[in-house]
Amino acid sequence: MLVLSAGVRFGIIYAAVFALSILALAVFLWWSTAGLLDRQTEAAINADTQGLLERYADSGLLALEDTIEQRLSGNVDDDAVYMLIDPAMHRLAGNLERLPAGVLAEQGYYELKLERAGRHSIAQVQQLELPGGFHLLVGRDVEVHAQMTRMLTDALLWAAGVALLLGTLGALAVRGLFRITLADVSATAAAIGAGDLTRRVRVSGRGDEFDRLAVTINDMLSRIARLMDGVRQVSNSIAHDLRTPIARARARLEDASSHAAGEADLRAAIERAEADLDGVVAIFNALLRIAEIEAGARRSAFADIDLAPLLLDLADLYGAVAEERGQTLAADIPPAVPAFGDREMIQQAVANLLDNALKFSPEGGTIRLAVQTVPGQGPRITVADGGPGIPEADRTRATERFFRGETARSTPGSGLGLAMVQAVATLHGGSLWLEDNAPGLRAVLALNTRPGAPRVNASSSAPQHGAARGMA
Amino acid sequence: MRILVVEDDKDVAGFVVKGLREAGHVTEHADNGRDGLFMAASENFDAIVLDRMLPGGIDGLRLLETLRAQANNTPVLFLSAMAQVDDRVRGLKAGGDDYLTKPFAFAELLARVEAMARRGKSEGPQTKLVTGDLEMDLLSRGVRRAGQKIDLQPREFRLLEYLMRHAGQVVTRTMLLEGVWDYHFDPQTNVIDVHVSRLRQKVDKPFPSALIHTVRNAGYMLRAEPQ
Questions:
Q1: Where are the domains of chain B?
Q2: How far is A348 from chain B (nearest CA, A)?
Q3: What is B128-222's CATH number?
Q4: What stretch of H or E contains A341?
Q5: Which of A281, A288, A321 is closest, CB to CB, to B194?
Q6: Inter-chain contact B83–A278, Cβ cutoff 8 Å?
Q7: Beta bridge partners of A137
Q8: β-bridge mates for residue A330, sequence order
Q9: CB proximity A435 to B under 8 Å
Q10: How far is CA B47 from CA A427, B12, B51, B89, B96, in A?
Q11: CB-based contact, A298 to chain B, within 8 Å
Q12: Are B143 and B150 in contact (CB under 8 A)?
């Protein structure tokens, strides 16, 4: 079977629709002009015949002859045809010199070729037999009609030709437009397929369907590019960042196997290597978790939740740690914080922010955990510390995997904490802002509400862990 | 205890079986799903350590589902490299009692298997927990040691309750995070150590002997010193 491109198919459909409309127009034109004239002629002949027959029935043959002569003389257009003949084929009245051959064999309506006043013409006639072997022929010269019909036919044929041409041109134009519009999309897709992820479909700015398609495709391409970038960056980072602890573990084991003084030494070296490998595993787990979150597979676990008890729990968990380090964790959490999301993920994201804040705050410093609920928007969870903060230049990169700022290099950590928070924020349709707390860092995790969801009634969900509040 | 290990990786299986035997457990091993199912269904075990991906046409999930369909309620711990949250959920839904992802520390596996097997045997709801001279009344939520009342925060109470329910067993930091805080991730900071240390201040420090012991490379254990 012949496979037609979509452009050709649309072209053919266009041409077919065009041809059909032209045909319908022609049929209508024909019916309303030539057809109308024919019908009018027929009606005139019928009326004429009827009149003559009545005259004949009333007053006889001679009256009929008179009437015919009268009508002939009153016929200004000279288009009437009459003929009355007796059984011996003599003309009694009428304007034909002689009866065309074979006329009497036919009865009723027909078309007759005549020669009148030295020229050929066509007449529409009706022929009937009167009692006593007389024949009456009544007709109209339709030569003018015939000419008009020929002209109309010619015109319609020409029009059909032009329409065919225009239809073909139109079809070609449709196909061409189609190809041009899609050429950019297909060229972009081909370039992307060949590895050039920077290409985008051109947006004409007309805001039509093709523009919307282009925007959708571009959005999709941007997301793919981001993911690809992430993958590339992560594989580079894995190669680079995991090599260090693996190298350390390897060096320890090799050193121990060749230099260990005794069993105790050997055990100690092996245990340190184990710890190094646990660190590697932790990094892998964090990477996999981020990948899992970014893939969006966990959206099925989204539910309406109250973040207040969750945040109070975290404040309780980390408040003790802060106290141990001589720091203060001040929690300012409203009695109810309705949100829509994955409980476990939000828990981990806030835990990561608190982990960071505690790690970078100086002794005696205060870490603030607060929540703002803006009506119509999701909750904003803020974790602020008084540590060194992140220089403005580094802030956008701070959420990349394995990124570690200058100030963070000396502290333990994998550089994955903020990347995970960012992933959680993105999955929840929200965002993560890193701001200057002057001094320190203020991280704001903004979540989104469920589109169109009824807000959780604030008064109905009382805090369940009120006793754990204010760990300061 | 009698423990069945269904694991196809020779090294992991050898390591687990050896460790469990050293810990004093009678241990059987199957290296494919079919044998594993046969042994689990025909013999009596106190616990089963089950890999998810197994050769022999029956994987860990199928094995467990078949076992549970036969009304066999032997506690099962999944040991799997499939570490995604959904994998864990699926494993627990299929009837697993616990889920440990590879790679793992043996101390963690041992602690979990022993806790799980013990839990399977617990008889009815308790109203009172006792370890040595430490008493916990679960109804009035009061704690006393040597007759002296100890005031605990709600979270400290739950932490001590968990330790007492697992008295004499090693409890890892991850088990405490999951069991007491219901967290399924590892915080970077030593949050558990801090909370245990706070609990010690109240439960151990005012008294001559310690009940909460640190088990090196593993976690904690609540245990009354033999008199």
A1: 2-121, 128-222
A2: 7
A3: 1.10.10.10
A4: strand A338-341
A5: A321
A6: no
A7: A83, A127
A8: A368
A9: no
A10: 39, 18, 13, 20, 11
A11: yes
A12: yes
**pLDDT of A298 above 70:** no
Chain B contact probe: residue of A317, A352, A418, A465 with most B CBs at under 10 A? A317
B47-79 confidence digits (pLDDT tens): 999 999 998 888 999 999 999 999 999 999 999
CATH class, A34-141 region: alpha beta
Residue range A323-380, pLDDT digits in tens? 989 999 999 999 988 888 888 889 999 999 999 899 888 888 899 999 998 877 889 9
Q: How far apart are CA A83 and CA A91, in angstroms?
A: 7
| ipTM of the complex as predicted | 0.84
- In CATH terms, B2-121 corresponds, of 3.50.30.10, 3.40.50.720, 3.40.50.2300, 3.40.50.1100, to 3.40.50.2300
Beta bridge partners of B135: B130, B144
- Residue A182, judged by CB atoms within 10 A of its CB (0-12, 13-18, 19+), counts as middle
CATH of domain A297-468: 3.30.565.10
What stretches in chain B show pLDDT beneath 70?
120-124, 226-227
- Tell me the domain boundaries of chain A: 6-32+149-185, 34-141, 209-294, 297-468
Neighbouring residues of A77: CB distance < 8 A, sequence distance ≥ 6: none
CB contact under 8 A, A281 and B103: yes
Q: What is the mean pLDDT of residues A256-282?
A: 87
Residues 263-282 on A with a CB inside 8 Å of B are 271, 277-278, 281-282
Q: Model-level pTM? A: 0.64
Question: Tens digit of pLDDT for each residue in A82-117?
Answer: 888 888 778 888 877 766 666 666 677 777 777 776
Compute the distance between CA of residue B189 and CA of residue A352 in angstroms, rounded to an integer.
Answer: 10
Q: What are phi and psi of B158, to 5 degrees?
A: -65, -35
Q: Tell me, what's the pLDDT at A440?
A: 86
The first and second tokens of residue A110, run together, are: 């027909």
Q: Angle A209-241/A143-193 helices, nearest 10 degrees? A: 10
